[in-house]
Amino acid sequence: MAVAEAPARAVFGPDFARRLWQLVRLYWTSPEAAKGGLLLAGAVALELATVFGTFVLAEAQRGIFDALQLKEVAAFLQGIGLFLAAVLGYVLSSAFRIYLRQLLEIRWRRWLTGYFLAEWISPHACCQMELHRSAADNPDQRIAEDVRNFVASALGLSLSLLAALATLVSFAGLLWSLSGDWPLRIGRTELRIPGLMMWVAFVYAGIATWITHRAGRRLVPINFDRLRFEADFRFTLVRFRESAAAVALSRGEAREQERALDGFSQIVRNWWELIRAQRNLALLTISIGQANVAIPLLLAAPGYFLGRLTLGSVAQTGIAYAQVSSALTWFVNAYQELAQWRASIERLFTLGDAIDDTQAQLARAGVAIVSTDDPELRLRELCLALPNGRVLLERASASIAPGDRVVVLGPSGAGQTILFRAILGHWPFGSGRIEIPTGARMEFLSQRPYLPIASLREAVSYPDADRSFSDPEIREALRAVGLPQLAEWLSETDHWEKRLSAGEQQRLSLARVLLHAPGWIFLDDATSALDEEAERRMYELLAERLPKSAIVSVAHRPAVVRYHGRRWTLVPREDGAAVLEVA
Question: Is residue 414 predicted with pLDDT exceeding 70?
Answer without folding.
Answer: yes
